[in-house]
Write a structure and sequence with these properties.
The structure holds 2 protein chains of 2 kinds. By secondary structure, chain A is an alpha/beta fold. Chain A is about 30% helix and about 30% strand. Chain A contains 10 helices and 16 strands. In chain A, the strands form 3 sheets. A 7-stranded antiparallel beta sheet of chain A has the order 6-1-2-5-4-3-7. A 7-stranded mixed beta sheet of chain A has the order 11-10-9-8-12-13-16, with helices on both faces. In chain A, helix 7 (about 195-210) links the parallel strand 12 and strand 13 (about 215). Chain A starts with a strand and ends in a 15-residue tail after the last helix. Chain B is of the alpha/beta class. Chain B contains 19 helices and 18 strands. Chain B has helices at about 15, 30-35, 45-50, 60-65, 70-80, 85-90, 95-100, 105, 110-125, 150-160, 175-180, 190-200, 220-225, 255-260, 290-300, 320-330, 395-400, 430-435, 440-460; strands at about 10, 25, 140-145, 165, 205, 230, 240, 250-255, 280-285, 305-310, 330-335, 335-345, 350-365, 370-375, 380, 385-390, 390-395, 425-430. In chain B, strand 10 (about 305-310), helix 16 (about 320-330) and strand 11 (about 330-335) form a beta-alpha-beta unit. The radius of gyration of chain B is 23 Å and the shape is globular. Classes of the chains: A alpha/beta, B alpha/beta. The interface of A and B includes residues 26, 37, 42, 231 and 271 of A.
Chain lengths: ~300, ~450
């Protein structure tokens, strides 16, 4: 069992947990992910690593309630435990393999969208610990959904906060902010964008135009996370790659986002159904699009 | 009774079992087992033993059954095999022990597999355990992977007195026995979990959720955690796809994914959250045992299922028994048929598969007649799900993170057949990680050979 030592609500439906998993904490680096399974009947859920403490043997995860399993996960609190917690999975961020001298030369900008802020944070923190300063654009739909702003402030060089509805910070999306920065004379050698698939797609369209090499982190459907099932396959530069072992980070300019977005919908109806069953139980009277209106 | 024929084994009716996940074969009862055991000639120079990759004393255990000493029969089995209840169910006996049985020259061979299963099931029902080591040896051995190779290697080492820890990447031990082979062929709780309990009762520790190569490396296990030898039985690896258009569409799965969702993640049970596509019309591409497992699973989830295979029935790599069972249950075999494209609807979902008919030409390098397309025979199948069951290629997680571990041109780990030794001192390997996808019993044979190799290596230290 993997005990939850800390739980914090970051925003509506978004939670942070520190989980005791010494083997994972000992080996993990920015860019990698874990798979958690709360109990016997739970799904295996891939989650990016938000932070880690090698001495305490803990790993920090952030999740958003999107389906049955994450809904059930929310019920866990400090003192409870995950039945399974496996990792670190996937390749480490390319930054961790780049010579420090080279990194220090680079002008790097991160674009974090929504819960994507969680996997961006350890990369920025790691760079900061190596003495490398970078710019971070982090955004959400609205002020109440912003997460980890204080934490990010401590490790980012320049931090630009955006909200789609203008309720806080820059009014607009991450792409608008990046355009504004470039228009003001900023130049970047590398962009790392992590967030919803559609956001990463539009960041890549923009950075292609701006000729800024861009890395994205994909979080497709997965089962085992070790290369065995092939559920997470994505087309990158015309080749089929498995996000769990070849990724999760890829050259964003080569990713077939339209296909990846379609693949993400695969279990949506199944998951939605499962969710309705949970929330409505015996009171479900149809409308899920699956039951024919009679349950 | 006809002495030339096997005592028939009871099975669930095909119509009934096509709709449930309970075991197909019901096995022998005591009377049937003794009757079948009496067909054994107890040959002095037993050919059957030579056909067994783990060299079970077959006449020995069958003699014990004849005499009604079922516990003795089990102890004979457990001397050579850590998983007799599994082997009795999934070994290809027809090409191994039973294939060599002298009875088989003039009639049907002795039903060795069903007798093995009987003795193992009897022991489990009567709570008989294998004999643990009399003396402990002060050597730590790590085993990577808890499939058939790893469990066998661990069981044998523990019986010799070694301190063994298994590291398993998934959340449940058993490897392919848990994620791959379906419940209706190999019950998980009743059979697999109990055999794993037996291995643990010998003193073997199992740590789940540890991916070696990620959460620590082989080198770290040896340098930091004090393991003096390591056995790698990490299994087959990454599923292959055909490389035809439309293969990334929604509704195209690898057999590994489809089976893992259903077997390991128990999608077929209400109380599990796992989603699975319950197709209405499913094609399984491939002709091996895994293809049969996927097809019969999809059938039980309620689909019309076609097995699409490019050669003819004679070349199907699956066991004859599996093909027979699949046909009985209503699986449709589209043989000499090769897919050329997955047809996709506007939303990215599978709507069908374009195929071409094949005929057999000259034999190829595998000795099988090469299938060639018949011009103008193109047609399409209307489908909502396609399951690709084309085998696997090795997983690079361990080979790419272990210094001095040689791999061959197919990227399989190089290990000596007789003792499992790899190019790295103290590191041994066996099973699919070495041979590429093969059978449970061959992996067990390799695990056994490696246990002997590790014992020799550590004894000489």
């Amino acid at each position: 069992m993997y005990p939850i030592v800390k739980k914090r609500k970051l925003a509506d439906k978004i939670f942070l947990m520190d989980v005791k998993a010494p083997r994972v904490a000992k080996s993990c680096l920015p860019g990698q992910f874990v798979i958690v399974k709360m109990d016997e009947g739970g799904e295996r859920i891939p989650l990016t690593i938000c932070d880690y403490d090698k001495e305490a043997g803990t790993v920090t995860i952030v999740f958003q309630i999107v389906g049955t399993s994450t809904q059930r996960m929310e019920a866990l609190g400090e003192g409870d435990a995950f039945q399974d917690f496996v990792g670190p999975l996937g390749r480490t961020s390319e930054l961790t393999e780049t010579p420090l001298e080279e990194l220090k030369e680079k002008k790097i900008v991160f674009i974090a969208g929504g819960v994507g802020t969680a996997p961006v944070y350890p990369q920025v923190k790691w760079l900061h610990s190596q003495g490398v300063s970078c710019d971070v654009i982090m955004g959400s739909k609205t002020k109440d959904l912003l997460i980890l702003e204080e934490e990010m402030k401590e490790v980012a060089g320049n931090l630009y906060v955006t909200t789609d509805d203008g309720s806080y910070g820059f009014h607009g999306m991450g792409t608008n902010q990046l355009e504004a920065l470039v228009d003001n004379g900023n130049t970047y050698d590398l962009c790392i964008a992590i967030g919803p698939m559609v956001m990463m797609k539009f960041v890549c369209l923009l950075t292609k135009k701006l000729e800024i090499p861009t890395v994205v982190s994909l979080n497709p459907i997965m089962v085992d996370g070790t290369g065995m099932c092939g559920a997470c396959r994505v087309t990158v530069g015309g080749q089929v790659k498995f996000a769990c072992v070849d990724g999760p980070e890829f050259d964003g300019h080569l990713v077939d986002f339209d296909q990846a977005m379609k693949r993400q919908q695969m279990y949506k109806t199944e998951e939605g159904r499962s969710m309705l069953k949970l929330t409505e139980g015996d009171t479900h009277h149809g409308g899920c699009g699956q039951c024919g209106g009679d349950k | 009774m006809d002495i030339l024929k096997k005592v028939p084994v009871r099975e669930q009716d095909p119509q009934v079992r096509a709709k449930n996940f309970e075991e197909v074969c019901l096995g022998y009862n005591k009377e049937e087992a003794v009757e079948e055991a009496n067909r054994c000639l107890n040959c002095k120079n037993a050919q059957c033993v030579k056909g067994c990759p783990v060299a079970i004393d077959i006449p020995g255990f069958i003699t014990a059954i004849k005499e009604g000493n079922f516990e003795d029969a089990y102890q004979v089995l457990s001397k050579s095999s850590a998983l007799p209840a599994v082997c009795g169910r999934v070994c290809p006996q027809e090409s191994q022990c039973e294939g060599k049985c002298v009875r088989g020259v003039k009639g049907e061979p002795v039903s060795i597999g069903k007798l093995e299963r009987f003795a193992a099931d009897w022991a489990r029902e009567h709570n008989i355990k294998p004999q643990p080591a009399a003396e402990k040896k002060n050597h730590k051995v790590a085993v990577v992977g808890s499939g058939p190779a790893g469990l066998t290697c661990s069981g044998d080492l523990a019986k010799m007195g070694y301190d063994v820890t298994i590291f398993e990447a998934l959340h449940e031990p058993g490897g392919v026995l848990i994620y791959g082979i379906p419940e209706f062929r190999l019950p998980k709780g009743e059979v697999v979990a109990k055999e794993i309990e037996n291995v643990k009762s010998l003193g073997v520790k199992i740590e789940t959720n540890v991916v070696i190569g990620k959460a620590g490396t082989i080198d770290q296990l040896m340098e930091e955690e004090g393991f003096e030898a390591v056995f790698i039985g990490s299994g087959a690896g990454l599923p292959k796809f055909m490389g035809i258009p439309g293969e990334q569409a929604n509704g195209v799965f690898s057999a590994n994914e489809f089976l893992t969702r259903n077997n390991l993640m128990k999608a077929f049970l209400e109380e599990y959250d796992t989603p699975i596509m319950k197709g209405k019309k499913v094609a399984v591409v491939g002709g091996g045992n895994v293809a049969m497992d996927a097809a019969r699973t999809a059938l039980r989830l309620g689909a019309e299922v076609h097995v699409v295979y490019r050669r003819s029935e004679a070349e199907l790599p699956a066991r004859v028994e599996e093909v027979h069972h699949a046909k009985e249950e209503g699986i449709i075999f589209d043989l000499l048929t090769n897919p050329t494209e997955i047809l996709v609807d506007g939303n990215g979902w599978v709507k069908g598969m374009a195929c071409v008919r094949m005929e057999l030409g000259e034999p190829d390098e595998s000795g099988r007649r090469r299938p060639v397309e018949i011009p103008g025979s193109e047609f399409s199948l209307e489908l909502d799900t396609v399951i690709m069951s084309l085998g696997t290629s090795p997983n690079p997680l361990i080979s790419s993170t272990t210094k001095g571990l040689d791999i061959n041109r197919w990227k399989c780990i190089v290990a000596k057949e007789e003792n499992g030794a790899t190019s790295k001192p103290g590191v041994f390997a066996g099973g699919d990680a070495v041979t590429g996808a093969a059978t449970v019993i061959l992996a067990m044979g390799a695990g056994k050979a490696a246990a002997k190799g590790i014992d020799e290596y550590l004894s000489g230290k």
